[in-house]
Amino acid sequence: MRHWILLGEAPIPGTDKSLSLFRGKDDFFIKLTGKLTGGQELMSSRKHGSEDALGALPCARIGSRAAAQVLIGGLGMGFTLAAALAAVGPDAEVTVAELIPEVVEWSRGPLGERSGRPLDDPRTRVYVGDVAKLLRRNPAGFDVIALDVDNGPEGLTVGSNDWLYSHQGIAAACRALRPGGVLAYWSAAPDRAFGEKLRQAGLQVEEVRVHAHGTKGARHTLWLAVDS
Ligand SMILES: C[S@@+](CC[C@H](N)C(=O)[O-])C[C@H]1O[C@@H](n2cnc3c(N)ncnc32)[C@H](O)[C@@H]1O
Predict the structure, then answer these.
(1) What is the secondary structure of 119-182 as a DSSP string?
(2) Is the pTM here over 0.85, yes or no?
């Protein structure tokens, strides 16, 4: 922490919390600050194995579908977006929804180098706002929906994100999927009840544990769900 340089701060709309971007010796870090959280590391550019997998695995499942439409929520450090872009074809569009405008600005600045500047890809569309709105507005709109807006179903960042992991939110995401599409969620920890909720929505669910970094240490959970 001693050698970290604060590069930017961004209030989280509708909360008393904020995100802070720091640069360390070789890496970037985003911390969540607020009354209850104190100061908690939310993302690090050093560890992104599971964020990469969230973009790559569901996009690999749709193969080389022509003019694929992918929705990523949220941008964060851009690793999920970059992995999705690497997995889809030249005529695909990948929309990334990000609630906090400053996070998009950070990615357009030095932070973007870490993920290969995915915002500069001509297939990328940026929506600054709540990914929930895009789910509601786009019935049968996407071949892949990949959601990593928080720590997981038990969120830390924005209370209203609970809806995304509720029965209603899952149903809205299913309606936003095209036939044969893939719905994917990221979580820092396993959550049996959430896997069950996806099954109750009539989805066939695969739960995957992916190392945060390399082949050792902490693992995160992904759910990949398709219509059964
Ligand atoms: C954990 S980060 C995502 C990390 C990302 N997968 C990556 O590869 O770096 C979560 C991001 O979602 C954003 N976010 C939170 N709630 C959101 C919402 N409802 N809609 C869109 N973005 C949201 C946050 O501002 C943050 O940038």
Answers:
(1) GGSTTEEEEES-HHHHHHH-TT-EEEEEE-SSSSSS-SS-GGGGGGGSHHHHHHHHHTEEEEEE
(2) yes
> Which two structure tokens, joined as six digits, stand for 171?
């149903």
From CA 200, how far away is CA 156, in angstroms rounded?
25
pLDDT tens readout for residues 122-156: 999 999 999 999 999 999 999 999 999 988 998 77
Closest ligand 1 atom to residue 158 Cα is 16
Contact between residue 25 and residue 9 where contact means Cβ atoms under 8 Å apart: no
Nearest CA to ligand 1 atom 14: 149
Give me ligand 1 centre to Cα 100, in Å.
Answer: 8
Give the atom of ligand 1 at the shortest distance from the alpha carbon of 82: 8
* Nearest-angstrom CA–CA distance, 90 and 76: 24
Residue 26 CA to residue 38 CA, distance in Å, equals 24
